[in-house]
Give the backbone structure.
Amino acid sequence: MGAPFDISYIFNFLPKLLTTLGTTLLIVICSLVAGVIVGFLIALPRLYKVPVLKTFSEIYISFFRGTPILIQLFLFYYGLPEILKLVNLDLTRAPVLVFVILTYGLHTGAFMSEMIRASVSAVDKGQVEAAYATGMTAFQAFTRIVLPQALAIAVPVFSNLVIALLKDTSLAFTLGVMELTGKAQTLGAISQHFIETYIALALIYLAISFTIEKLLLKAEHRLLKHEDRNSSVKKVFGIRKNISYRRIIAEMGSGKGGASL
């Protein structure tokens, strides 16, 4: 049993936990950048139906969506160096943060690819055909017609993915990374005030998640205003403006946690 509850410890622990916030945000930012890049690379074969690469993309997505992130962390941290030893590449001295960011980046990339594919697919193909009819090139049609709408559709899902990634970083402490949760574990073990430690930790995660949600909500509204400014162009083509969030959710299947080949 821990020490008796003392609310003052919550306020004492907050600044101590915030000293490791930089590590948590570093993992989130680097993983997002890697995830977006990987997501585009994985989504393209499925969008353009490239035979062999499409199958590889589906297997990749099924693995990272269908297995726990904790198992993936262990596989990459303990398994990858052993595999690379076969090609005389020694990663045993590489910082653990490298394996953490790599794992989270590849994991996030699987969900990003589904978001990208579903967002682009949700845009009415008739709009692209109308753009071609007016003389636009494929690149112009994508950047002027498809991309703005796809971004507006993707922002709510992207927001969920970012917040989910933030919460998933709490598992990095299992490999010895001293991020928010790892610091909370240490403080709790030293002081024996576990409840106060985790309340302080929950407050920090809640504040960050709330901030991310509000910032991305503003970005979504900004993109939707851009859509409104272009509504007159769509009326010329006789196209009904409709951004369907239900469609993108349906396209992504069961969201974070599903797996299908």
Remarks:
- Residues 194-229 form the longest helix (36 residues).
- The CA atoms of residues 152 and 220 lie 6 Å apart.
